[in-house]
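Human:
Class, as today's exercise, you are to examine the entry below, and be ready to discuss the fold:
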Amino acid sequence: MRGLHLVLLAVLLCPDQALSLQCYFCAAAQTVAQCQVMSCGQAQNVCFKANLIATWQDGRKVSVNQGGCAISCEAASKLMQMMSKAGPGLGPMDTTVEGIGALVPKLEVQSVSCCEKDLCNGVSRAGRSLWALTGGLLLSLGPALLWSLL
């Protein structure tokens, strides 16, 4: 019981952490599983997810996910557009420095979506599907049922 009081006290003393929005942070991830959870700043009100296509100089195309916190959906969209135009320090496909062009892909924004709930910019939860919920329940209770039968 004392531990519960300490947790409640910590929540009351740190309201910014307790009330801040949480989003998945993805930096050039190829799958959403490569993303990490982050707490947003006070002014950041939305989570965003952007799908980009990276085209390498040799013609290879790779789907890339970006995600994180933003002040607004418009700000997130502008940021993704700026990334696609500027690239990481050099222009996309910039070959003025010999050999660097092969390291910097051209980025093309496919879509940007935003939401305002905790962890809403990641994979959907299993609870949305009745079959997934039933399977999860059976997997979690299965060992206990088998143990009781033995």
Q: What stands out?
A: The chain has a mean pLDDT of 74.
